[in-house]
Amino acid sequence: GRGILNPNEVGCGAMLCEAYSDHWGGHHTGFHCPRLSDPPDLSFCCWLGEGLGLKQCCPRSQYHNSMNSSQTGTRVNSKEPVYRLTVVLLYGSLVLVLMLVDFLWFCRARGLSLDDHDSIVPTICTSLIQNPGALKEEGNTLFNAGDMQGALCFYTKALKLSHSQAESAVLHRNRSACYLKLEDYTKAEADASKALDADPGDVKARFRRAQALQKLGRLNEAFLDAQRCAQMEPTNNTFKEMLRLLGAQSQKKVTIQMSSTDARVQQMFSLLLDPSAQPSDRQKAAQNLVVLSREEAGAEQIFRNDGVKLIQSLLGSNQEEVVLSALRTLVGLCTGHQSRTMAIVNELGMEQLCGVMGSGASAVSLAACHLLQVMFEALTEGMNREIRGKDEAILPEPSRELRSMLRHLVEMMPASSVSGPGRDSAINLLVKQVPRKSQRNPDNSLTLWVIDQGLKKILEVAGTVPEMSEGPPLTDNSHMSCSVLLSKLYDDLKSDAERENFNKLCEEYVQHHFGRPGLESKLRAIQTVSVLLQGPSDVGNRTLEMSGMMDAVISLCASEVVCHQQVAVEALIHAAGKAKRASFITANGVALLKDLYKKSENDQIRVRALVGLCKLGSAGGTDFSMKQFAEGSTLKLAKQCRKWLCNESLPPTSRRWAIEGLAYLTFDADVKEDLVEDRNALQAMFQLSEDKTVLFAVGSTLVNCTNSYDVDKPDPQMVELAKYAKQHVPEEHPKDAHSFVEKRLMKLLEAGVVSALVCMGKQESPALTETCRECIARVFLALVERQEDRGTVVAQGGGKALLPLVSESTDVGKTKAAQALAKITITSNPEIAFPGERIYEVVRPLVSLLTLDCTLLQNFESLMALTNLAGISERLRQKIIKEKAVPKVEGYMFEEHELVRAAATECMCNLVLSTEVQQLYVATGNDRLKLLVLYSGEEDERLRKAAAGTLAMLTAEQPELCARIPGTTSHWLEILQALLLSDSLELRHRGVVVMLNLMQAEKSLAETLMESEALEILSVLAKSTEQSPISRAAQHCLDKAIEYGIIKKPEEGGEGNEP
Q1: CB count in 10 Å sphere of residue 780
Q2: Which whole-number Å values give the CA distances from 354 to 369, 423, 522, 536, in the listed order?
Q3: 714: cis peptide before it, omega within 30°?
Q4: Contacts by residues 61-66 (CB-CB < 8 Å, ≥ 24 positions apart)
Q5: Which of 162, 209, 545, 653 places its Cα 20 to 30 Å from the Cα of 364?
Q6: Radius of gyration over alpha carbons of the chain, in Å?
């Protein structure tokens, strides 16, 4: 009731008197009743009296009288609301009239009339959708009016229709402006970058990118863009002001960052230099210094504040954790920074760094090895691009520091003060840094320098017998590491003269020790030969053929001294590497090895003799007819190897030799069957695979068990000719048949072979050679042969483990790993098998299979895998295009093999979703479109589906191609009609979509189609009782023909369409 009271009325509410104005314009604040000065019964609010216009607190009775008076007043003054309603109605009518006038003006501007009201909106939309220029203008209008979302929509639609690179660049630039207004700076930067990719001289796009980068906090990049804008338009004050502002912001950011970092660095330094500080506090300070060094600002502050001297003092600490922190801090300082690395090398000196690496602590040695690795990379590869731009002019050539580092590493080889782990780390560094990374690089000067200065020092380590008093301390891995280093150096030589020099130096060293009096010198010579046989075997064979060497080996096998026997037996084992040498040793040494195996009381001798017998027994390889021993002998040897392998009470060295024996014996299929049945032996072998020295042996054993080695199957006619000529013909063991191999693979999977392979691939050791990686890749390929097993391999980390193998293996190993990736990608969801960014790493290996050197099966599987990837996202398609796969895919579309040809066409079907690939078909002067039309009429249904699907997408995305289809072949109409009449619903659907695209593109094409039998076929398809995509598309074709006026709309109950 309060809403209709006036000052002449009395009641206005209970308990609360609201604020009001009196007749004289005075304002009165509200108050609650009763007030402090009122009696308690005055708890209601009333007007003071008629004509006074004031409020007061009153009793209940007076309030009710006021309410009655209020109701009477309401009826008397009821005309006032009516007057107000009339005003509202008049105002609304005026607004409607103005809107109608505006709409009529809009229609007149576009030549429309109200009689066409049913087609006004479709006509407008059609005219805009088909014209990117009109869409852009509408977007500009909305942008100027402040409607950013509307402008964004129009620019986006125009981009989809635009075929001009210049026009697309302008649209990207305009859309970037919209995103800037909408404060979506990431998209603004992306669109401006796309505009600049098309036109680097677009100053507006560059300025907008600078604005976006500024908002994103990427001030350095923004400054470069603003600087470029100012260079292009020197008189533009806006660019100058932005440049000044960005400079100030960058300086402020750097100052804040540096001051904050400087304070933290000083705090850490204070703790480390305080002798009274607690050891735990100093240790924490050292760890915090590591964290700071990983940031560029922190690394620079540490370096500038004489942090290297402090770190130098920490390297002499007795606390291992403090030394580790000091080494890790140096890693942060050197990573990717050549100038700091050179300064640190000169200040610390290689003597101290090599001394730390040669210390007894294994963890410290590994950390120092990692530091030197980072230093090598910084000196050889240079600094990061941003840093190099500032310092390149003042940096001297780092070759002096590199030679100094290599010299100290070589000098560590024979030094008795260097620990075994430290020596292994030095060998590891030489393996990684000295040989060329690629044979295309003609400069092998580092290798020649190491051979000239340090080959004899390396041979001293190779010839050291640990059980003898002389020689530096070694680990179990040292001899294997030396073999790898010698092999790498020998393989890096380019000419016969260089290889001959290498042979000469090795022969001189061996002859020097073998010719000296005393047994220890001869043992050193034999040990050196043994290491050479494991590494550069050609060199080892030449030294083994030296006068008296083989006789000395055989005679020492009969020595009563265990150490002498051990060296001789190992040399005998490694000497039996080739069939020629094996036959000689079989005739001269088998009886000796058997005696050692049966009569020796030392297990280390027995297991080595056993491996020698295993190696000789397997000299025939997989040839079932070439057996060196009697039937059943190899099974007995294998059984003993498995027994030793599972015996945890034996030392690890003896168990490792048992794996070596199995690596040879598993050429025999009977041995393979027994091994995969022995779950305990498999588990023991997988457990020992963590040992670096047996990586190749485990890999070889698994390759043999899975039959993943290459087998050249002879031509059957040649086999018959060989039999006729009584020549030897290799025979396959019956248990090497496919069914047996498949069962062995299943048992290996159940035993956990995938996890073992993953761990083997992660090893950081010279023993993990490219050949070892090839073995791992071969086994993986065998494991994913069956589709049912691929999920298991992926779930246990096999997909991730394969990625490094495609870049760090032999050429054969890379191909095998890439093929395994292809098999996984074909049948598994690639986004699950290779999550995140890992999926993009799969593309390059797959493309590498599209070469003539690979088999047709590898080509086919690669195309299938790329088809799956191309269907996932535009970013993946761009990655495939960037790897230059499109020309290769097009080449395989002409392949004679129908499966490969169809797979290539399917891959192209997904690739044409990218505008770049579409433009290849839009370009004139090629037969790409013709090939698709012809393939759509082939007999191979798979090929027809792929070609017709590609044609359907191309004609939808690029309507201009429709007019060119009749010119591809005179049979184009027959081919399309055949698609419509196909028994395959998929082919029929593709045909109808192509028809619809042609009719929508040009009226003349629609007339040509409707004059043919296509009209009758489409009419039948449109009458289908089921509302399928085919019937709906066919009906759209007929509707389009009616719209063009080519055919008449059928009357109700009519029999069809009449032209």
Answers
A1: 30
A2: 9, 10, 32, 28
A3: no
A4: 62/10, 63/11, 63/14, 65/10, 66/9, 66/10, 66/11, 66/12
A5: 653
A6: 43
Report which of 907, 841, 911, 844 is spatially closest to residue 874, judged by C-alpha positions: 911
- Helix axes 307-314 and 338-348, enclosed angle (nearest 10): 50
Residues 5 and 73: their CA atoms lie apart, in Å, by 8
Q: Helix (H, G, I), strand (E, B), or coil: what is residue 45?
A: strand
CA angle 205, 209, 214 (to 5 degrees): 150
List the one residue out of 337, 338, 317 whose CA is nearest residue 327.
317
Q: Are 181 and 173 in contact (CB under 8 A)?
A: no
Question: What span, in angstroms and rounded, lies between the C-alpha atoms of 905 and 928?
Answer: 11
Query: Phi and psi (nearest 5°) for 17?
Result: -100, 110
Identify the H or E element spanning 32. Answer: strand 31-32
List the 11-14 sheet strands across, edge first.
11-14, 44-47, 55-58
Question: Could you tell me which residues are beta bridge partners of residue 161?
Answer: none
d(CA 566, CA 556): 9
Any alpha helices (H) in 110-184, and if so which ranges?
120-129, 132-144, 148-161, 165-181
Each residue of 441-474: b (16+ CB within 10 Å) or e? eeebebbbebbeebbbbbbbbbbbbeeeeebbbb
Tell me how far apart the alpha carbons of residues 173 and 592 are, in angstroms, rounded to a whole number. Answer: 85
pTM: 0.65
Give the residue from 626, 636, 644, 755 showing the smallest Cα distance to 702: 755
CA distance 76 to 8: 13
Q: Residue 153 and residue 187: Cα distance in Å, rounded?
A: 14
d(CA 416, CA 711): 48
Q: Running DSSP on this structure, what letter comes out for residue 1056?
A: S
**In the block, which residue shows the tokens 């036959």?**
583
User: What is the signed CA dihedral for 176, 177, 181, 182, rounded to 10 degrees?
Assistant: -30
Question: At residue 1012, what is the residue type?
Answer: S
Residues contacting residue 776 through CB under 8 Å, at least 6 positions apart: 699, 757, 760, 761, 801, 805, 813
Q: Identity (one letter) of the amino acid at 220?
A: N
Other beta carbons within 10 angstroms of residue 690's beta carbon come to 14
- Orientation of helix 219-232 relative to helix 203-215, angle to 10°: 160
Q: How far apart are CA 597 and CA 610, in angstroms?
A: 6
Contact 574, 530 (CB under 8 A): yes
Cβ atoms of residues 384 and 391 within 8 Å: no
Residue 733 DSSP class = -
Q: What is the CA 283 to chain-centroid distance, rounded? A: 37
Q: Are 6 and 73 in contact (CB under 8 A)?
A: yes
Q: Name residue 357's amino acid.
A: M
> Tokens 């030793």 map to which residue?
644
